[in-house]
């Protein structure tokens, strides 16, 4: 477009100039082949001036040379060879800025029209046709479609840049089944016509784009609800995220039912339609509609395996760690919400179900039992396979292995049972039992794959024999290993004049670079400079070096070994053995320290006021200045009561309370070597008469006939007592010496036999 305008704008501009100058155009231009020329052709451009002047020719505003024909000729011309581009040629007099000129557009003549395709939209009376000439002509080209019998001369349009013509014409009569058309294309370089072309209207009917209104799905099929349509043939296309896709046609519009789908899978549906198999064109595809099929209960049993777990030895049950493999998407048939683990104990007929959230393992302690694990989704649970939890019999040294590459190892073993026995091969990185993997074979060889190089694996093969499983293990194998990356850091545990006990930490798994086999402890005598080596097998991390000389300095370091070699040393541990005199001195200091510590502890105890008093009581019982309890005031006062003795415990710390506390003690016959009274003091600021009875109640609770403690803190309805009761919490509850049962001999309490045991009291701190 801009090219077309170039000259006209220039002319208009010049015209304004020219009129201002009161002059006509200075020249006229001529092209031997017109404005539109065949691309690549030669032509002559010439200018005829209407007055004498020095004549100039420009191409795109740049002056070009020309051959003067005659000296006084009014005409100048140039031969243009092989024109390829849009070009503006112009001429003017040197003295006069007013030019004359022409735009030359190279292009092609049109080709024969071909590949006519027409479409009649359903329920439209217009037919739209597209045809092509094979290539763009570059210059303006007119397309014309003439319909036989139509009074119109033709339906015209312009060819687009890629050489396509679009024409639309109406169908005048609804009875028409055919139209005959001619096509023609023309431009200044030529014109072409083709035809007649016969169009069967029934074949060009194209239904409008259908719409899927709704999709209803079960787990295995989906039913599409579409807008109303009168077409007989529908094509359905669906694809799932997992890559499954299919296309099929149906001629039963009431059955847009897609079956054999997978549960819990998201599908994209699209449809298109057509009049029938023979007639019409396919409509455009509908907008895709997405829907997820419903879940189904998983129908595949889980692959379950178990390992023995070390658990408290006092319990009768054995403990196992149960592992299972997650179902893959197609087997799970839905989102696994939990796993139901059913534990059946054979003896007790006890049956329990443990529900665990999605995980891969679970610990179970039971005795002589079998378990099953099933995966549960919203629709149900997978079938169960019961496995007996039995400790396998161990067989040693039967397993051999050979690394295949950095990630896999071949395992071999002799037949552990009759042919056809199933073997479970499991492996996990040492220290990470959760990373367990296993495979089941009926062979006597297995390839374990997916291993990490420089990782140490524990591998075992278990023969599932009917008489009980039998297991062969290898402690540590590695597909590829190198020497450890670092050495252990030794620490002294204790030393003597002649020996040193040294320990070191287990190295972190990733620094080991394989399976550790042993450690070497190096000892260098600093004086003599000679080095001694000691080998320590792997799991041990302690070593005692003996035979050292007293009062001598050494340097010690430790290295770790894999089968691939020795790693670097860890930190140095320089140390000196004790001299004999130092040893004695250190013993003296140690003893002094212990005594000091004991004193400090005693002092601390006495700082607690509540304890303080009791402590003093105890001390009185222990020290000779304490009067004989048998002669104490309270004992004398109440000694005549045979069945029930009431006596007062003198307040040891009289500054706290002047008033004696009344404590009721029931005498209980109990066979015991040691008899003592446990009571508690009662700090009371009130002195009302009911106090005594209240305390009595409490004491009856504490000192019962069975010698057992019963609910000491139940009686918290009396505020005054709360504090003293709370004070017992100061002691670890069951070990409080004041809450120990009361033992009496012979049904009679004489204070001769009342001893107060303070040993535990002191222990409590
Ligand atoms: C254009 O002119 C050149 C040189 O004069 C000649 O070689 C060529 O064949 C001509 N091209 C046409 C299409 O006539
Ligand atoms: C002349 O100018 C047009 C743009 O106006 C450009 O496309 C064309 O290549 C130019 N022709 C030559 C020979 O430079
Ligand atoms: C059919 O074509 C005519 C002229 O091209 C146009 O005016 C009319 O809207 C068209 N009708 C339909 C239904 O497309
Ligand atoms: C016309 O159609 C034929 C076959 O359908 C094809 O081979 C040819 O390339 C088409 N021509 C153009 C110009 O598109
Ligand atoms: C010309 O029309 C054809 C057919 O409709 C279309 O595919 C093409 O993109 C059009 N080209 C341009 C440049 O518009
Ligand atoms: C799609 O179908 C479901 C059940 O079949 C219905 O509840 C829902 O309303 C429908 N939606 C539309 C847009 O028709
Ligand atoms: C589809 O057609 C039925 C009757 O054939 C009519 O009841 C219903 O409203 C129509 N639905 C639409 C969306 O046109
Ligand atoms: C179309 O489907 C309906 C029910 O969905 C069925 O009754 C009828 O037989 C089917 N027709 C054909 C031609 O398959
Ligand atoms: C879809 O087809 C399946 C079997 O292919 C059938 O069980 C189900 O009932 C059908 N659904 C509908 C809505 O017709
Ligand atoms: C297809 O539809 C057309 C028009 O409705 C009809 O004339 C023709 O017989 C149909 N063909 C078949 C195979 O049904
Ligand atoms: C799921 O696992 C089964 C075997 O258990 C296998 O046959 C199937 O191909 C797996 N499917 C996928 C999607 O991995
Ligand atoms: C899983 O165990 C729970 C707890 O006993 C039970 O309620 C639930 O029904 C079980 N799940 C299935 C699918 O049976």
UniProtKB/TrEMBL annotation:
Keywords: Disulfide bond, Glycoprotein, Membrane, Receptor, Repeat, Signal, Transmembrane, Transmembrane helix. The chain crosses the membrane at residues 584-606. Residues 1-20 form the signal peptide. InterPro entries: FN3_dom (IPR003961), FN3_sf (IPR036116), Hematopoietin_rcpt_Gp130_CS (IPR003529), Ig-like_fold (IPR013783), Type1_Cytokine_Rcpt_Type2 (IPR052672). GO terms for cellular component: plasma membrane. CDD domains: FN3. It is found in: Membrane. Residues 206-296, 484-580 form the Fibronectin type-III domain. Residues 478-497 are annotated as: Disordered. It is a single-pass type I membrane protein. One of its GO terms (molecular function) is cytokine receptor activity. Pfam families: fn3. PANTHER family: INTERLEUKIN-27 RECEPTOR SUBUNIT ALPHA. Belongs to the type I cytokine receptor family. Type 2 subfamily. This is Interleukin-12 receptor subunit beta-2-like isoform X1.
């Amino acid at each position: 477009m801009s090219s077309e305008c170039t000259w006209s704008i220039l002319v208009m501009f010049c015209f304004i100039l020219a009129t201002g100058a009161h002059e006509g155009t200075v020249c006229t231009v001529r092209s031997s082949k017109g404005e539109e020329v065949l691309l690549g052709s030669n032509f002559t451009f010439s200018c005829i001036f209407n007055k004498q002047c020095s004549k100039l020719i420009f191409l795109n505003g740049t002056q070009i040379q020309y051959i003067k024909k005659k000296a006084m000729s009014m005409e100048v011309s140039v031969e243009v060879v092989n024109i390829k581009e849009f070009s503006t040629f112009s001429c003017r007099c040197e003295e006069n800025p007013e030019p004359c000129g022409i735009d030359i557009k190279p292009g092609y003549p049109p080709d024969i029209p071909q590949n006519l395709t027409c479409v009649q939209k359903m329920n439209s009376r217009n037919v739209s046709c597209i045809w092509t000439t094979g290539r763009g002509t570059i210059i303006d080209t007119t397309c014309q479609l003439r319909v036989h019998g139509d009074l119109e001369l033709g339906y015209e349009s312009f060819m687009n840049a890629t050489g396509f013509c679009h024409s639309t014409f109406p169908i005048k009569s609804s009875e028409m089944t055919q139209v005959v058309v001619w096509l023609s294309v023309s431009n200044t370089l030529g014109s072409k016509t083709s035809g007649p072309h016969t169009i069967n209207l029934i074949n060009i009917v194209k239904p409008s784009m259908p719409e899927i209104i709704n999709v209803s799905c079960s787990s295995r099929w989906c039913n599409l609800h579409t807008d109303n349509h009168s077409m007989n043939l529908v094509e359905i296309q669906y694809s799932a995220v997992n890559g499954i896709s299919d296309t099929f046609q149906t001629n039963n519009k009431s059955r847009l039912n897609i079956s054999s789908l997978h549960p819990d899978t998201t599908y994209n549906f699209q449809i298109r339609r057509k009049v029938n198999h023979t007639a019409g064109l396919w409509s455009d595809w509908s907008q895709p509609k997405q829907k997820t099929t419903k879940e189904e209960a998983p129908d595949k049993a889980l692959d379950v395996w178990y390992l023995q777990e070390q658990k408290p030895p006092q319990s009768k049950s054995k403990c196992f760690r149960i592992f299972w493999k997650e179902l893959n998407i197609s087997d799970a048939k839905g989102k696994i919400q939990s796993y139901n683990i059913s534990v059946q104990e054979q003896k007790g007929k006890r049956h329990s179900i443990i529900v665990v959230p999605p995980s891969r393992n679970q610990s179970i302690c039971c005795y002589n039992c079998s378990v099953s694990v099933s995966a549960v989704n919203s629709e149900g649970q997978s079938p169960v396979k019961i496995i007996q939890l039995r400790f396998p019999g161990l067989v040693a040294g039967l397993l051999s292995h050979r690394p295949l590459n950095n990630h896999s190892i071949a395992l071999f073993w002799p037949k552990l049972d009759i042919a056809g026995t199933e073997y479970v091969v499991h492996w996990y990185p040492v220290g990470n039992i959760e990373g367990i993997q296993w495979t089941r074979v009926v062979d006597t060889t297995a390839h374990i794959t997916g291993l990490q190089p420089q990782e140490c694996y524990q591998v075992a093969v278990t023969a599932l024999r009917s008489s009980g499983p039998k297991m062969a293990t290898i402690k540590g194998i590695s597909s590829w290993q190198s020497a450890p990356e670092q050495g252990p850091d030794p620490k002294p545990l204790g030393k003597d004049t002649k020996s040193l006990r040294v320990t070191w930490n287990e190295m972190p798994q990733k620094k080991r670079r394989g399976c550790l086999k042993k450690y070497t402890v190096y000892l260098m005598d600093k004086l003599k400079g000679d080095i001694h080596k000691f080998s320590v097998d792997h799991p041990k991390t302690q070593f005692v070096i003996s035979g050292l000389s007293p009062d001598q300095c050494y340097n010690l370091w430790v290295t770790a070994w894999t089968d691939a070699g020795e790693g670097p040393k860890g930190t140095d541990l320089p140390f000196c053995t004790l001299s004999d005199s130092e040893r004695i001195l250190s013993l003296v200091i140690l003893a002094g320290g212990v005594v000091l510590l004991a004193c400090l502890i005693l002092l601390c105890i006495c700082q607690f006021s509540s304890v303080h008093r009791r402590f003093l009581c105890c001390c009185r019982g222990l020290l000779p200045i304490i009067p004989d309890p048998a002669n104490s005031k309270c004992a004398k006062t109440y000694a005549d009561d045979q069945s029930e003795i009431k006596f007062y415990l003198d307040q040891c710390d009289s500054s706290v309370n002047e008033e004696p506390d009344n404590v009721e003690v029931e005498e209980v016959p109990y066979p015991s070597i040691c008899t003592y009274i446990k009571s508690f003091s009662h700090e009371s600021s009130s002195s009302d008469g009911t106090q005594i009875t209240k305390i009595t109640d409490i004491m009856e609770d504490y000192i019962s006939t069975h010698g057992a403690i019963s609910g000491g803190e139940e009686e918290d309805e009396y505020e005054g007592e709360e504090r003293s009761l709370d004070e017992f919490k100061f002691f670890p509850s069951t070990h409080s010496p004041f809450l120990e049962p009361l033992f009496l001999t012979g049904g009679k309490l004489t204070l001769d036999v009342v001893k107060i045991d303070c040993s535990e009291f002191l222990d409590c701190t």
